[in-house]
Amino acid sequence: QMADPFLYNTGERSQYGCLGHEVQIEHIKAYVCRPSFFTDKAVIVIHDIFGWQFPDIRYIVDLIAGHGYITICPDFFKGTDPWKTTDHWADFADWMKDHDPMKVDKETDVVLKYLKEQCGAKKIGIVGFSWGGMAVHHLMLKNPQLTAGVSLYGIIRDSEERYNLLNPTFFIFGEKDHTISYDQIILLEEKLKQYCKVAYKIKVYPGQVHGFAQLKPEDMKPDDKPYIEEARKDMIDWIKMFI
């Protein structure tokens, strides 16, 4: 019996009181958190399979906003149900057909327009976790409006066009993530060296499993805490370097 790959333990979770608010942008709902001062810098956060309302992802939005960015997590599932812990793993492939992380372009364009026209954003970055990490990888190949990206443990699908990134991209992985093999990471590194003309970085965090970087402080295990905090700092530092 293989463990359910994406289902990192969503059980024992503390509640989270969000700092931001929800908005409606055209056909999409989104969660937005702004810093206390004016800024023309923004970050889009792409949620994992548990969707835009999941407390962990809202915590990340608030965390990034705290570093001085207008931060937004749109509902990339467009009102359809996210994956639930009660869903059956056998149905995951079918669920994914209707939730393709490579089909996020239209929604991203809607959000980019909102950030530029309604929020005055001039530089916009993107960060995504798991399902969202795959979406970020896709968007950094397709959308030149995104100044920098961070893809956290998005499964790598090998094909030649996966490596010609348009803008600086940082790939974060956990060493013990059984959804992504070490061979895939090595291949990514080799191919980026060959094709990528912009800044990129790949980093693997010791002992970490899928989903490690989005835990709230009170949900972290003491042994993992330093790596989670390091990954988050690395993520913010990458954004700050370019945005």
TrEMBL record:
Q: Which Pfam families match?
A: DLH
Q: Which InterPro entries match?
A: AB_hydrolase_fold, CMBL, Dienelactn_hydro
Give this protein's Gene Ontology molecular function annotations: hydrolase activity
Spans traversing the lipid bilayer: none
Domain called Dienelactone hydrolase: residue spans? 28-241
Origin superkingdom: Eukaryota
Instruction: Give the UniProt subcellular location, in the record's own words.
Output: Cytoplasm, Cytosol
Kindly state one GO CC term assigned in the UniProt record: cytosol
Which family is it part of? Belongs to the dienelactone hydrolase family.
Q: What is this protein called?
A: Carboxymethylenebutenolidase homolog
Species the sequence originates in: Buceros rhinoceros silvestris
